[in-house]
Amino acid sequence: MTGRAELAAFLRARREALRPEDVGLGRGPRRRAEGLRREEVAALSHMSADYYTRIEQNRGPQPSPAMLAAIAQGLHLSLDERDHVFRLAGHRAPERGPSGGHISPGLLRIFDRLHDTPAEIVSELGETLRQTPLGVALSGPLTDFQGEQRSIGFRWFTDPGARLRYAPEDRDALGRVFVANLRRVAGLRGPASRAAHYAEALQERSAEFRALWDEGQVATPPEAVKRFLHPEVGLIELTCQRLIDPDQSHALLVYTAAPGSESQDKLDLLAVIAAAGV
């Protein structure tokens, strides 16, 4: 069996082993097969069903590393399984570690069960990798950013719009948190890291960043309570809980409001607005 044929067989086996509820999908009343459908994997991987089907049937061109990474994430593969897929397709496996964007299956399984809660998965540089629908409604589509702008800390000092959804009186403190975190990560990852590159670029582009960087703060933990200024429902006060994946240095952030509070009422209204597509 060739590598491409082995790849097709491996993807098919992984797809058939997954249940809809394993990846946050509902099980319809008429469903008979236990495994996922090809079109479901394609949707989870953000590609056309025809493209995924051709890969699984060992047809068409060799899939690119970007497509393989998307399929590995869509199928909730472990890092070992992801690397195996890359090798079968004739590509070098991506580097592991905190700079990688591959989210662990365990963290994804928790995230997939948070349909009705604002939540996101972020990298150690504040890059949003996944958002729940209510998370998008609360903060905007943060996964759409590219390059340096993926990092909230980088956007904070280069794009005035990055601050608009946060209470004005909290913005100074948030800026200090972003700078301190970038210093911590740059020190941890070294002078060749993306964190070090971001720090150098921001010192050139932002006088505010330079002033805060020169203060030398490293340990400035974020406040547990986040205050969002939403353009439709106004100020929302939420508690942020963090779950850290130590292997990839990703964090699952879950936002909740105090029961019976005005913020809970606003969050409920935001859910209705989001569901209506307003």
TrEMBL record:
Residues 31-82 form the HTH cro/C1-type domain. InterPro entries: Cro/C1-type_HTH (IPR001387), Lambda_DNA-bd_dom_sf (IPR010982), MLTR_LBD (IPR041413). Gene3D superfamilies: 3.30.450.180, lambda repressor-like DNA-binding domains. Pfam families: HTH_31 (PF13560), MLTR_LBD (PF17765). SMART domains: HTH_XRE. It comes from the Bacteria. CDD domains: HTH_XRE. One of its GO terms (molecular function) is DNA binding. PANTHER family: BLL4672 PROTEIN, BLL4672 PROTEIN-RELATED. This is Transcriptional regulator. It comes from Microbacterium dextranolyticum.
